[in-house]
Amino acid sequence: MFEFVPAPMLIVWRGGELQAANASAREALDGLRIGDVLPVQKATEVEFRRYLERCASSSATLPGTLFLQCEDGSLERHSCHGTRARLGGFEGGSLVVLHLDGLGLGRRFGILASKLYDARRVMLERRRRTREMQALLQEREDLLARLEADAAARVGAERERDEVLTRLYRAGQDERRRLARDLHDHAGQHLVALNFGLRRLLPYLSSDDARSELDRLLDQAQQVGEALRRVTLELRPAALDEFGFVTALRYLVEEWSRTTRIATELQVSGKEFHLPAEHAITLYRITQEALTNVAKHAGLPSYVSVVLLFSPGRLTLTVDDDGTGFEADDASSHLLVTQGKLGLIGMRERMALIGGSLQVESSPGQGTSVVARIRLGSDVDHDA
């Protein structure tokens, strides 16, 4: 919408003293002060006073020219029209009203151009910053995309690693089962045949030295048989396949208690169900390793408790002792490796391979609790 701007107007005495100025004049002319003589050029001061005298003594409107001195020393030329005026409130002489024609248009245009230049510079700066911000945002999006891709690749690599480790674990268990079966079926049978063959030689030996030597060989064969049985149990406990997980675990606990002479009990709670072979052998090995750690590191505990808790969709195995204990908070993988305690690391890795978890709770003088948990799917037979 067009805005009307009044022409600059000055009211002066005939001597040139300024008495009033409108807003347009104050905006266009810098340094105007009421009561001061208009800052005309020295060379035109006489002509300016004559022009004011003519305007004050005539009722007509007279054209003229003002050469005003700016504060910075520059000179501005302004066309004007002067006329005599008698205004209430102004006493003491004749007043002249000067209407400046186009006063300050050049200056206004310069100011406007300067403002437009500043606005354009600000706009360009804003555009530049906008482009920089867009570039930064794009870099951020690219970085996030790369991070997501890296995270997805890392997750995929970890999944592949877990699958490979699981296959290796299963292959190792299958190989253990095969070796245990071969030792039991072949080496065990040969050892039994050797024992019978040696015993059949007894009636044919007449000297005491020969009989003593045969007895020694029979003892060695029996020791070899015991060692073979222990190796077979380490590879794959036969009771696990023949009698099931709970029975094999009970036999393990009783045998360990008999060997170490530490009071040990096995408690089974909840409704038992059949475990997948992979889960059963893992929990069996966890119990075996936990009992071995008790014998090595718990000092002289008065009792050891093994608790097997069956619940819907979950199986929890707990091995407790009242031995010397240790700082469980320091049981990080790095610290365990540096201290040579690889048993706990192996237990955790075994549990992770079947989707389970292992937690160790202990403190000095308060014993140790090893808790293994496995979540089971809906395909597990809970009625077994």
Describe the structure.
With 384 residues, the chain is α+β, with helices and mostly antiparallel strands. 53% of the residues lie in helices and 19% in strands. It is built from nine helices and ten strands. The strands form two sheets. It has a five-stranded antiparallel sheet with strand order 2-1-5-4-3. A five-stranded mixed sheet has the order 6-7-8-10-9. The longest helix has 96 residues. The model has no long low-confidence stretch (mean pLDDT 80).
| Alpha-carbon distance between the two ends | 91 Å
Overall geometric form? rod-shaped
Give Rg in angstroms: 54 Å
Percentage of helical residues? 40-55%
Ordered list of secondary-structure elements with their pairings:
Elements: E1 9-13, E2 18-21, H1 23-28, H2 45-56, E3 62-69, E4 75-85, E5 95-101, H3 105-200, H4 208-235, H5 238-242, H6 245-260, E6 263-269, H7 277-297, E7 303-311, E8 314-321, H8 333-338, H9 342-353, E9 357-362, E10 368-375
Parallel strand pairs: 6-7
Antiparallel strand pairs: 1-2, 1-5, 3-4, 4-5, 7-8, 8-10, 9-10
Helix pairs in contact: 3-4, 6-7, 7-9
What features would you highlight for this structure?
384 residues, alpha+beta, five-stranded antiparallel β-sheet, five-stranded mixed β-sheet
